[in-house]
Amino acid sequence: MLQRASNLLLLLGLVLTWVLGTETRLLFFWPAVAVLGLAGVLAMLRGRLRVYFPPSEVCLLSVLVLAGYLFTRAAFSPVPNYALEDQVMLLACVLIYLLTAVCASHPRWRTAMLGVLLAVAAGNLAMGSVHLSGEWGFHVVPHFLRPSEPGRIGGFFANANHLAAFLSVVLFLAAGWLCVGRAGSALRLWLGFLCVAVTMGMSLTVSRGAFIGLLVGGLVFSVAVLWLVWQTRRHLFWSLLAGGVVMALLAGIVLWRVNEQYLRERTERLSVTGDVRLGIWESALAQHAEQPWLGAGARMFYEGGTRLRSPRLPAWTPEPLFAHNEYLQTLADYGWVGLGLLGLVALLHAANGVRFLRWFVQEKFIHTGQVLSMNLALCLGALSALAATMAHAFFEFHGHVPATALSIALVMGLLANPGYEEMARPLRRVPFARPLAKGGLVLASLALLAAVWLHGRGDWALAQAQLAQARGDEAARRQHLDEAARLSPGQAEVFYQRGLAALEQLTEKDRSPPSAALQGAVQDLEKATQLNGRNFLSHLALADAYDAIGRTDDALRSIQVALALAPHHEEPRLALGIHWHRLADWPQAERAYLWAREAWARNDQKQAGWLESYRLLLQHVALIRRQAASP
Predict the structure, then answer these.
(1) Taking the chain, what is the end-to-end CA distance rounded to the nearest angstrom?
(2) Cβ–Cβ contacts within 10 Å for residue 111, how many?
(3) What φ, ψ does residue 512 adopt, rounded to 5°?
(4) pLDDT tens for each residue of 41-50
(5) Between the chain's N and C termini, which has fewer beta carbons within 10 Å?
(6) Closest by alpha carbon to 407, among 233, 165, 138?
């Protein structure tokens, strides 16, 4: 009973993740985290789990070793706020992986998981139709907007490329069910229609990386199916091969015609040599070179992409935040050790899936004469989906989005336990693998529940403060920021936002150094820089506060720290000019403004730049000269 309840909660957690956990931030992922944590706790309350098929203990141990390294490296990262994002997602992936490989190993539960996945895919396509109607910013959560790019559907996802990565997993699992799974005629017809619809949905995302993943996954799927047919129904091989080639050509022509104009525009606008990814990859490799073996720490490319910004990037390109290549991101954050373990895990799971296909043909088929099998369908789809997502990962960062990361974890769980029954040669036993898996399940579940309580509530309060700011309700903004600071006292962003809010609301009366409001802003910004000393914006805000209370030397030191963190950016150079401007040191201010003109990374065009401040400087100097010349 407890295991059944755990599996039901697992399904609910997956639905919440696939609908809400579609951004790199954790804000909308917290409800799913709570449900998944409860699913893990219920699974372990029973004590002894009922496992219908034996999982590969080698695969289980490899994932636990990888997770242990990543979690430990994240725990020693320079910025705990950044590390938390990776740690929560990592724990959720471990939980999904273990529950899929152990608790939900029966085909009935796996079919239910696949059914839920297909239903969510249909929901994404329906949401895409809303975007196509012109509502490109529509978000499933009220009062929030999706950061959209007109012309590319996103479904529940903030990024069209991540929707494409999710749909590629759906496509190959559905195709496996369609080709070799157990299903009636009506269900097969529906699955065929869904495969076509998902493929068209992928084309409407216009994700070039996803098209490459689709090609690689399709190649793996085709080879595996043809091999199965050759081994089991050889008389159908040549007709199936001819039909498959014709269908592939027709599908390729249709996809090209549907997206021809937009793809041509993107290719002309973003040529291979001019793609911003090349500059971002340069920054990731530069950060990797600083600590090649262990990496800089979890999500430290947030800082590295700014400090090591490449001159290849256009001046107004915003901060990359992610390396747009999961392998380079892993190298930058976790080093060669992390990438090596990740590659080993992928290789072991793919090998276990291939071994299952051989076992099915050489042992089960010989005894039963049956080819149709849900376990075979899921294994075939999981192998192809893994190949597709690994190819796509060369161009995107969908492993840092909960919805896609947990989908990959589910695929890996399917490959770790594809459904071996009676085997001539049993799977290799690994000492302590099963106790470690149970211990990992317990720890991951409890840690996720603790994270929801300690950090999730503060995240929501901070989001409410940002909504209040958008509405112009400063009182509500301040109230929510105070609540966020109480609930999450270790979150740097809360104190940064509260300090900014205090500076923005200062009256003339508050601008004197003894002002309690001004002193409070200084304390909040000092706290923000203590919790996250790698965010140059916090140092710049603190410099403004220091200047306001007359601590000009401290203000200059804060600006110098910001310059070290963002040496190629206009904003800290501009802040240096404004600092000297306030002190009426006109030569120093002029040099700083002209230096800001040479920055590689310019302020957003909606923000004030060096030119406006330089003109103001000239006006002030002219005014002073006129006043000095007047009798």
Answers:
(1) 95
(2) 17
(3) -80, 145
(4) 998 886 666 7
(5) C
(6) 165
Structure tokens at 382: 């999981």
Tokens of residue 572, six digits: 């800290």
Using CA of residue 232, residue 236, residue 240, residue 242, what is the dihedral sign?
positive
Going by C-alpha positions, the residue among 595, 618, 585, 502 that lies closest to residue 549 is: 502
Q: Would you mind telling me the total number of residues written for the chain in this entry?
A: 631
CA–CA dist 246, 253 (Å, integer): 11
Strands (E), 312-463: none
* CA distance linking residue 291 with residue 295, whole number of Å: 5
Compute the distance between CA of residue 250 and CA of residue 508 in angstroms, rounded to an integer.
71
Q: State the amino acid at position 624 in one-letter form.
A: I
Q: For 58-85, what is the HEC assignment?
A: HHHHHHHHHHHHHHHHHHCCCCHHHHHH
In the three-class reduction of DSSP (H, G, I as helix; E, B as strand; rest coil), residue 601 is classed as: strand
pLDDT of res. 254: 62
pLDDT computed for residue 272 by the predictor: 46
What Å distances lie between residue 197 and 158, 194, 215, CA to CA? 20, 5, 17
- The pLDDT score that the predictor gives to residue 103 is 84
The helix/strand count (H/E) of the chain reads as 25, 0
Q: 162: which 2 tokens? A: 């991540």
Cβ-Cβ contacts under 8 Å for 248 (sequence gap 6 or more)? 218, 222
Q: Can you say whether the dihedral through the CA atoms of 453, 404, 409, 394 is positive or negative?
A: negative
Which pLDDT score, from 0 to 100, does residue 522 have?
A: 94
Please name every residue paired with 601 in a beta bridge, in sequence order, or none if there are none.
569
Distance CA(36)–CA(270), nearest Å, equals: 40
- Compute the distance between CA of residue 181 and CA of residue 197 in angstroms, rounded to an integer: 19
Q: For the chain, which residues score pLDDT lower than 50?
A: 270-273
Output the furthest CA–CA distance in the chain (Å, rounded): 111
Distance CA 72, CA 77 (A): 9
What are the distances in angstroms from CA 47 to CA 42, 44, 441?
10, 5, 12
Q: Which domains does the chain have, with CATH numbers?
A: 2-139+146-448 (no CATH), 456-629 (1.25.40.10)
Burial (CB count within 10 angstroms: exposed 0-12, middle 13-18, buried 19+), residue 183: middle
Q: Which amino acid is at 299?
A: R
